[in-house]
Amino acid sequence: MEFTLTATEVLDKAAALAADALGLDAEARGAWGNVEKARAVERWFKMCS
After folding, report:
1. Is the pTM of the predicted complex or chain greater than 0.70?
2. According to the lineage, what is the superkingdom (predicted)?
3. Contact yes or no for 43/32 (Cβ under 8 A)
4. Using one digit for the tens of pLDDT, what is the confidence trace for 1-49?
5. Dist CA 36 CA 29 (whole Å)
6. Contact between residue 21 and residue 42 where contact means Cβ atoms under 8 Å apart
7. Residues 15, 32: contact at Cβ < 8 Å?
8. Which 8-state DSSP code applies to residue 15?
9. Mutual angle of helices 34-48 and 7-22, in 10-degree steps
């Protein structure tokens, strides 16, 4: 069984995990574009480093 994700789907999932870890408001996340998602992932990475 093969399972593939697009780059956008991976970014969406990573951003959701990052936002949860950072305690960010779920309602605000609905309006995020790719830049905001990438920034959340970057902030989460820095927090974990």
Report:
1. yes
2. Eukaryota
3. no
4. 788 999 989 999 999 999 999 888 877 777 888 898 899 999 999 998 8
5. 9
6. no
7. yes
8. H
9. 50
Query: Tokens 């574009």 appear where?
Result: 33
Write down the pLDDT at residue 30: 77
- 4 Rama class: left (phi>0) / alpha (psi -120 to 50) / beta: beta
Residue position matching structure tokens 């480093």: 49
Cα separation values, 42 from 3, 4, 9, 10, 47, Å: 26, 23, 17, 14, 9
pLDDT at position 29 = 77
Token pair recorded at residue 39 = 């920034």
